[in-house]
Amino acid sequence: MAYQAPKGTRDVTPAESYRWQYVENLIRRTTAKYGFLEARTPVIEHTELFLRSVGDTTDVVQKEMYTFQDKGGRSITLKPEGTAGTVRMFVEHGLFSETMPLKTYYLNCPVFRYERPQAGRLREHHQFGVELFGAPQPSADAEVISLAYDIFTSLGATDLTVKLNSIGCPKCRSNYQTALKAYLEQYRDELCEDCRIRLEKNPLRVLDCKVESCKKITAMAPHTMDYVCNECKAHMHEVQGYLSAVGIPFEMDPMLVRGLDYYTRTVFEIVYDAAGAQGTLCGGGRYDGLVKQIGGPEVPAVGFGLGIERLLLYLDQTGKSIPEPPAMDMLIFGMDDAGKNKAFQLTKALRDAGYSADTDHVGRSVKANMKYAGKSKARFVLIIGENELTTGIGNVKNMETGEQESTALSVEGIINLIGGKGNE
Questions:
Q1: CA distances in angstroms from 396 to 342, 379, 407, listed in the order given
Q2: Which residues, including other chains, have CB under 8 Å from residue 111's CB and lie 6 or more apart?
Q3: CATH topology for 17-169+228-317?
Q4: Strands across the sheet with 66-69, in order?
Q5: Percent of the chain with pLDDT strictly greater than 70
Q6: At what angle do helices 411-418 and 337-352 cross, to 10 degrees?
Q7: Hey, where are the domains in the chain?
Q8: CATH of 330-418 among 3.60.70.12, 3.40.640.10, 3.40.50.800, 3.40.50.700
Q9: Half-sphere exposure of residue 357: CA atoms within 13 angstroms, side-chain side
């Protein structure tokens, strides 16, 4: 039988991996400018971690997690998002004892959600996210939004909107939940089955429902900002001020709550409106109570996550080009065994000098090797035969101009002819 990747997963072939690498390298450069350091956490976590942090009334926990029992009878889950594992790491290793703030990010982080595969969202997809611990000030919220926005603009984005909302703190959110529940009770019979359960356990989750009938009801629901306390209002006002100060456009979205329970105060999304339902490229917010909830001290935190697949899809949809990788500097082929040995030697010497180089490992004819060189878009080609070995001189062909020039069969002679610093 012919095996295929499981539904909702996909391969990244060698012909397209350069696109991922380009985005990943840009992300690493940007996070370095902001002072963030990389963290890597396991793909699996104890299920209880997500029940406590993400929330047992969320779609992620109720419908989407890949959970199983291991051979020791422990409930294990493939991580459905990156924040909970990073916070677990922060607590387990006592990183709260270090100088704050602690700025960390994760990249090419595989996450797993059992849902209907759709454009830019797969059952296994890969996230980039940042988590900033120990910074209660509104400037930290604006900092992570600015970082995400910088990444998008560096990729050529000019058509994005930052959507903001405040969902309050534990002190004031109960007032909003009471008002929201009273409003939704009027429409109980019109809510979907899931939302009728959410109405009892966590009314805020109804606002995140994607069922059209529920969306029509929640469109007229009370707004969170009408119920948050003065401290939360002041916090959001300052976040807006910092974003305005650096020229990042934003708009308030009173229906924005995000799909995970750990958020407090600021929540945000960066949206590409023309993509419709698939337009959310990035989402995050503040989660000041999560560190304590997972067993650590009270440490404020804020962060975001974005899907690499969704980002690449956006770049395709908007015609944002990713530069192709540089062509091979040089291909060196031998016509006989002695020539192949010399070609192998010179190829290694060029690589040691910082150039990209390759030789024939297939046993092609000279004509076939030249055809291969043309397809591979190599910059220069050198063919070594008996005459070249006898004289110590070879002809290097410039594949762009078609011109040939003689050089000594030494790495110094070749470098002197082809110039540049190579692709290292």
A1: 15, 10, 7
A2: 78, 79, 80, 81, 82, 124, 125, 126, 127
A3: BirA Bifunctional Protein; domain 2 (3.30.930)
A4: 44-46, 75-78, 66-69
A5: 95
A6: 60
A7: 17-169+228-317, 330-418
A8: 3.40.50.800
A9: 26
**37 pLDDT more than 70:** yes
**Nearest alpha carbon to residue 302 among 315, 285, 319, 289:** 285
The whole-angstrom separation of Cα 176 and Cα 224 is: 6
Q: Please count the other Cβ atoms lying within 10 Å of the Cβ belonging to residue 212.
A: 9
Better-predicted residue by pLDDT, 285 or 275 = 285
Number of neighbouring beta carbons within 10 Å of residue 233 = 16
| Two structure tokens written together for 329 | 């500097």
pLDDT tens readout for residues 387-422: 999 999 999 999 999 999 999 999 999 999 988 655
H or E stretch covering 286: strand 280-286
Query: CB-side exposure of 241: number of CA atoms within 13 Å?
Result: 9
Residue 318 neighbours by CB under 8 Å, 6+ apart: 156, 157, 159, 272, 274
Q: In the prediction, which pLDDT does 177 show?
A: 85
By three-state DSSP, how is residue 321 classified?
coil
Strand partners, 163: 251, 269
Task: Note the pLDDT tens digit of each residue in 68-127.
Answer: 999 999 999 999 999 999 999 999 999 999 999 999 999 989 999 888 777 667 899 999
The pLDDT of residue 423 is above 80: no
Q: Which residue has the tokens 């990713």?
A: 322
Per-residue pLDDT for 291 more than 90? yes
CB neighbours of residue 174 within 10 Å: 11
Residue 243 pLDDT level (bands cut at 50, 70, 90): very high
Over residues 45-66, the pLDDT tens digits come to: 999 998 887 776 666 776 788 8
- Mean pLDDT confidence for 367-379: 91
Fold agreement (17-169+228-317, 330-418): no
Give CA–CA dist 16/106, Å, rounded.
Answer: 22
- Two tokens at 330? 């040089």
- The DSSP output letter for 96 is G
CA distance 121 to 113: 9
Q: Count of residues for the chain?
A: 424
- C-alpha to C-alpha distance for 320 and 410, rounded to whole angstroms: 42
Q: What is the mean pLDDT of residues 324-339?
A: 93
133 touches 139 (CB < 8 A): no
Whether residue 280 contacts residue 314, with contact meaning beta carbons closer than 8 Å, is answered with: no
